[in-house]
Amino acid sequence: MTNGWVALATIVGGIIASAGGGEIIKAALRKLRQRGTPVERVRTLTESTLEWAESLKSEAAAARKDARAARAETAQVRREVATIRVDLEYLESLVSRITQLIHHEPGMTIERLRLLVPEGPPRRRQGGRPS
Amino acid sequence: MDDRPPPLLVVSGRRRPHEVMLLAVSVFLGLSYLAGAPRPGSVNAALPTAVVYGWAIALLATGAAGLWACFSRDTEEGLELERGAMVAQTGALILYATIAVTSVGFAALISATVVTGWAIANAVRAVQITRDLRGLR
Q1: N or C: which end of chain B has fewer CB within 10 A?
Q2: Which residues pair with A87 in a beta bridge?
Q3: At A86, which helix (H) or strand (E)?
Q4: Higher confidence at residue A2 or residue B62?
Q5: Would you kindly state where each structural domain of chain B is located, as residue ranges?
Q6: 3-class secondary structure, B4
Q7: In angstroms, what separates the C-alpha of B130 from chain A's closest C-alpha?
Q8: How close does chain B come to A68, measured CA to CA in Å?
């Protein structure tokens, strides 16, 4: 050291440089900690992929359950439509029979008609068929 | 109830051409001196070899860290790294400017003035970053 000023500058410069260097190292270490090691990164990625796959699996199971419920509902609706169709056919035949009776007997009365056609409109059983 | 809008924080950009260029110059000088390029005679005469190597390493490391910080995508992390580089580089530049002035005197007017200005700019930038970081947090 040639003189006191250089010595002072070396000390002051060294202290300032060390303070800045410490901050650089701190920032670099924080960055490294955030990133983690490659093995940790792969493990994290694998774990999150597995979690994602699990959630997809449970979503698929729920969707299958919904589809089964929808199919059952559709079958029920079809059964009801078929029952209504049978009811309509029966009513049609009843009307046709009454019309024929009125046509063949011009003096037909409502009392006589009730005697000739005792069965009324169909009453439904559990399965929806006419009684 | 206070209806005033929240204060708007503007973080100044980190890719100013003068700063980036000086950081690149720092990397270049540090690398050159470490690779064996002739070092300034005043520095060689005033400092022990180990300190001269430390000075060259400081130039290289602070330039590289500063450049990395300028192009970092993470604003906060980049600012912290940049502040560290600015402060550390200020130390290395103060050392050189003092040696130039005390050893060579007026003959080193340009180099000493430029390097002192560079060191002051670094210090001012470090203060700016501190203010920006306080605003971010």
Answers
A1: N
A2: none
A3: helix A38-104
A4: B62
A5: 46-136
A6: coil
A7: 12
A8: 50
